[in-house]
Amino acid sequence: MSTRYTLGIVDYLVILLFLLISAGIGLIFRFSSGKQRTMKEYLLAGRNMPIFPVILSTTATLTGTGTMLGIPAEVYRYGIQSLVQPFATAIGMYLAVYVFIPVYFQCGVTTVYEFLEIRFGKYTRYALSAVFFMQVIMGLSPCLYGPSLALSAVTDLSLNMCILVIGGVCTFYCAMGGLKAVLWTDVLQAVLMFIFVIAFYSAGVSDAGGISNIYDRAMSGGRLQIFNFSLDFTVRYTFWNCLCRGFLYGFGGYGASQLEVQRLLSTNDVKKAQRCLLFSIIPVFVFHSLSNLAGLVLYSLYYLCDPVLDKAQTGLTKYDQMMPYYIIRKFIAYPGLTGLCIAGIFSGSLSTISSILNCLSTVTMVDYVQPCFATISEKKNVLLAKTFSVLYGLIGIGLAFAFSYVQSLKQFGITLFALEGSAIVIFLIGILTRKADDKCVLLGMLFTYPIIIWIAMGTLISGYIESPLELGRSNCSVSDDITMNWKNFTECSSFNNTANLNGTCFLPSEKKEPFVVYKISYLWLHTFGTVLTGSMIMLMVFITGWNRNVIAADSRCLSPVTRFWNRKAAANIACLIPVEDLRSQIVTLKRKKNLETVSKN
Question: What is the structure's pLDDT at 178?
């Protein structure tokens, strides 16, 4: 019989207080700071935000439940290889500070898609903003459904209630307070997220018998391989795909994504924005590293009996439920502490959802409404922006139940944003080169995007998941259900399909091996998209004329890095003999040779 834990009144009060504070922040900024009379005040927080909230908001925005719950579950099953990603992410973020961020301030844009129109043309702007819309609207649903499912499975919280509360509160303070409310609530949420992780470590390390025991158990379980240099693209985690994915996540996610760039644009100058992103590297690195190492702690706690295999006793059906299951079971006897941890899980969801809602509203207004209806007053623009925030929040809540089949929050989130890598290379071409125009970019997208979408959707629909490392069952309760689950698990694992652990499995005669392309690791999707799209656009540039430059050498669209290269190249050319002088020398040499010939004759 599975156990569901009943929260005490103090726990509910803590959760309620957290939600009320989040909603209250939205009300405070609705009736203060200029009362949102302009779009600049509502969408960009007046461009006068201090560094501290921007740093924590930048940290929390992309560090949601996929990181808090998904990464430990992946490490528990597949080992610590993914620890390479935080190091690569830090490098990518550092480069984004100097390559991407100055360009947006040079161009004076509100969205990154405004820059694309300045650099390439309006069709590129609309195409990539439309892709952004599709990705993030779909991304709202797992952000709501994931933590709600994890908590409802191990507590007496209702799944429906969790979704409605998280989505409703987030939509309220985002619509009421604008970006300023989102930034300050992110501060609270980032703190609670770290409290959740610290609480897990304080209990988990002690229960596992200390760090040495965690290391020994992880080593004996094969979880410590971190330098797997395999070039097999079907291997879920290798050094190379973790390195590439981590770098693109840091470089593009924080340099070319509206979700993060909008926070940096809320500051009043480029130097402050760069400092914010530089300082954000440390908490992002720490949180992602802790999330990876948490997977080893989980394994050391359950190395004798996998809680998903033992679902008759635990009630767990997905590995993303393991973190909340352990921490709630551990702290249920301490009034208020369980509620604080649940608030931390909610925080990971709220920070991502609020960022998505605010960005969707901004992109809708700046990239679509204002260009088409330039005569609308500022007051009506602000009202429309709030309306869109509410509308997108309702859409996210409505779609949340469509993702009950998701077996890995981390895999689903990365696969959903498979086109992100293609967008990164378009931005790079725009700020690092003077080549490529609207036609080149659109043709490149036309030929490559269908391929990327096909591969990404195929990996999800096929249901293929690589067999995990060996999971413990020696100390599980002896029952027919456990035996059957383990039997089905091993049979499915032999077919690389571990998605179904509920007693249902397709045997070899009933299920064929998936197409080899669908077995590609989800971590390679962004890298493939980047290489494929970049190559196709450069091919279009070569066909239309490689020597043709579409922007001036001093264009504001070029990164300072590119301008530095151009100045250095110009200095090197200046050191050479001028063309006219070279021609004069050639003429002199010819005349001298003719005179020598005449004298000989």
Answer: 87
Give the residue-averaged pLDDT of 568-581.
56
Residue 314 identity (one-letter amino acid): T
Place of tokens 């099953």: 77
Q: What is the DSSP letter of 320?
A: G
* Model pLDDT, residue 514: 80
- The residue type of 538 is M
Work out the number of other CB atoms within 10 angstroms of the CB of residue 114: 19
Assigned token pair, 235 = 């291997």
Which residues lie closer than 8 Å to 216 by C-beta, 6 or more apart? none
HEC secondary structure over 30-46: HCCHHHHCCHHHHHHHH
Q: Which amino acid is at 273?
A: A
What contacts 579, CB < 8 A, 6 or more positions away?
A: none
Indicate the average pLDDT of the chain.
82
The pLDDT tens digits of the residues spanning 375-389 come to 788 888 888 999 999
Cβ 434 vs Cβ 555: under 8 Å: yes
Q: Are 98 and 278 in contact (CB under 8 A)?
A: no
* Residue/partner pairs of 46-50 with CB below 8 Å, 24 or more apart: 46/180, 46/266, 47/265, 47/266, 47/267, 47/268, 48/266, 48/267, 48/268, 49/180, 49/183, 49/266, 49/267
Instruction: Give how far the C-alpha of residue 592 lies from the chain's centroid of Cα atoms, to the nearest Å.
Output: 70
Count other Cβ atoms within 10 Å, centred on residue 547: 5
**What mean pLDDT comes out for the span 496-516?**
49
**Is the distance from CB of 70 to CB of 410 less than 8 angstroms?**
yes
Burial of 416 (0-12, 13-18, 19+ CB in 10 A): buried
How many Cβ atoms are within 10 Å of 382's Cβ, its own excluded?
21
Residue 499 has pLDDT above 70, yes or no: no
Helix (H, G, I), strand (E, B) or coil at 507: coil
Q: From residue 16, give the alpha-carbon distance in Å to each of 29, 185, 390, 477, 495.
A: 20, 15, 22, 37, 46
- Contacts of residue 226, Cβ cutoff 8 Å, sequence gap at least 6: 79, 80, 81, 83, 84, 239
Most distant CA pair in the chain, distance: 116
Q: What's the pLDDT score for residue 490?
A: 45
Q: Judge contact between 400 and 141, C-beta under 8 A.
A: yes
List Cβ neighbours of 446 (8 Å cut-off, separation of 6 or more). Answer: none
Cβ neighbour number for residue 429 with a 10 Å cutoff: 22
SS3 544: helix
| Residue 506: predicted pLDDT | 38
The per-residue pLDDT for 570 is: 58
Question: Within a 10 A sphere around the Cβ of 549, how many other Cβ atoms?
Answer: 11
**pLDDT digits over 165-219, tens only?**
888 888 898 888 888 888 899 888 889 889 989 999 999 999 999 999 999 999 9
What is the pTM assigned to this prediction? Answer: 0.86
* Residue 59: alpha-carbon gap to chain centroid: 11
| Closest listed residue to residue 50, CA positions, set 269, 254, 350 | 269
Stretch 433-452: mean pLDDT, rounded? 90
* Interval 396-428: pLDDT, tens: 888 776 665 555 555 666 666 677 778 899 999
Query: Are the C-beta atoms of residues 99 and 329 closer than 8 Å to each other?
Result: no
Q: How far is CA 308 from CA 255, 314, 479, in A?
A: 38, 7, 14
Q: How confident is the model at residue 72 (pLDDT cuts 50, 70, 90)?
A: very high
Helix (H, G, I), strand (E, B) or coil at 5: strand
